[in-house]
């Protein structure tokens, strides 16, 4: 196992979304559509990875950006906000900006 304690450059946005099993796929579809149509075209975008809990109760959206300001710009963008509102209608999101403090491979 190798590790790195070098500080990560950029910004990591993690959104843990609590959902019901019967609406998990709908949340995933909204996130995919928002990423493809809006998020991936925003300045500073690097990547998005989506995770679906096997029990259907959570979805995790992990986005990597060049700068923390890029995340703030997305959060104030009207098109992005429309997708967040759609998600909020069927699930409860807990978003946050994180710093990578260790990586192991």
UniProtKB/TrEMBL annotation:
Which segment of the chain is annotated as a signal peptide? none
Q: Which InterPro entries match?
A: ABM_dom, Dimeric_a/b-barrel
Query: Which molecular function term from Gene Ontology is one that the record holds?
Result: monooxygenase activity
The reply to whether Oxidoreductase figures as a keyword in the UniProt entry is yes
Q: Does the keyword Zinc apply?
A: no
Swiss-Prot/TrEMBL keywords: Monooxygenase, Oxidoreductase
Q: Which residues cross the membrane?
A: none
Q: Where is the ABM domain?
A: 11-101
Q: Cite the Pfam families for this sequence.
A: ABM
Name listed for the protein in its UniProt record: Heme-degrading monooxygenase HmoA
Q: Which organism is it from?
A: Brooklawnia cerclae
